[in-house]
Amino acid sequence: MSRITGVLQALKDQGRKALIPFITAGDPAPDQTVALMHTLVDAGADIIELGVPFSDPMADGPVIQLACERALVHGTSLRQVLGMVRTFRETDDRTPVVLMGYLNPMEAMGYGAFADLAKASGVDGILTVDLPPEEADEVAPLFTARELDAIFLLSPTTTDDRIRAISEHSSGYVYYVSFKGVTGAQGINVAEVAEKVQHIHELTALPVAVGFGIRDAKTAADVGKVSDGVIVGSVLVDTIANNQDNPEQLKKALTDLLHPMREALDGLAS
Question: d(Cα 163, Cα 159) in Å, to the nearest integer?
């Protein structure tokens, strides 16, 4: 059983929902990332999605695009990101870490070399935004052989046949994008999300985590009622941008934002 599956199963047994924050590695500076990861855990994170900075993050809106730019100014590389995970593992061997990014940096390193280093560094899952399962024949077996969960995206327009096909290639959980558009956009419709997630659950046994549009405790709780977990990204990354010159204030701001979401999700179990 992977670390991701173990955490999600334990939460399910407790009647609780997963809180999965996303930050971009190297933002606002590489030497702050590991400390921010620990801050997220202390604030209630169950799983961390760690973005690998990329020069053309096509699925992301302006907030995360700017985060990638800030990280790349410091020269943050895929190899450095894996080093951050390795350092995080020195004091946290429980919290799963999912790398979220794009195919090009992995291809440049070499898929086999990347998979080996990811496993050795303590990574638990890989979500590659621009790698559909139909084109993953070369990469997916490398992940499976190293017990790295392959996580794929589902959207409001994903057909039933494709949901089944993606689920067959997935492990850990599937990531449901709550609306059509890029990260950071507004206007999540919880009723529509609930209907779609219920339908996805009829087609796959994997947990369904919902991302895009989770900005506060109320939204987290509303979406948590109908899913197995919520993924919080742009609002955290925006908080980093607004506090980038004060590391201690940044930690407090992230905690003040994430902790109420943790409490709201835990309130669903009572």
Answer: 6
* Catalytic residue list: 49, 60
* CA distance linking residue 228 with residue 154, whole number of Å: 14
Report the pLDDT value the prediction gives residue 58, as an integer from 0 to 100. 72
Mean pLDDT of the chain: 93
pLDDT at 137: 86
Question: What's the gap between Cα 62 and its chain centre?
Answer: 18
Q: Is the pLDDT of residue 181 over 70?
A: no
Q: Which of 147, 177, 141, 140 is nearest to 22 (CA)?
A: 177
Pick the CATH number of 3-265 from 3.30.70.3270, 3.30.450.20, 3.40.50.1220, 3.20.20.70: 3.20.20.70
* 33 phi and psi angles, rounded to 5 deg: -65, -45
Between CA 153 and CA 45 the distance in angstroms is 21
* CA nearest neighbour of 177 among 167, 165, 192, 160: 192
Please report, for the chain, the start and end positions of each structural domain, with discontinuous segments joined by +. 3-265
Q: How many CA atoms lie within 13 A of 95 on its CB side?
A: 27
Q: Which two tokens stand for residue 207?
A: 């947990």
Q: At what angle do helices 234-242 and 62-73 cross, to 10 degrees?
A: 50
Structure tokens given for 196: 């779609």
How many Å apart are CA 72 and CA 95, to the nearest integer? 26
Average pLDDT of the residues in 188-217: 93
| Contact assessment for residue 117 and residue 77, using Cβ atoms and an 8 Å cutoff | no
What are the tokens at 125? 């899952």
Three-state secondary structure call for residue 104:
helix
* Contact indicator for 154, 176 with CB cutoff of 8 Å: yes
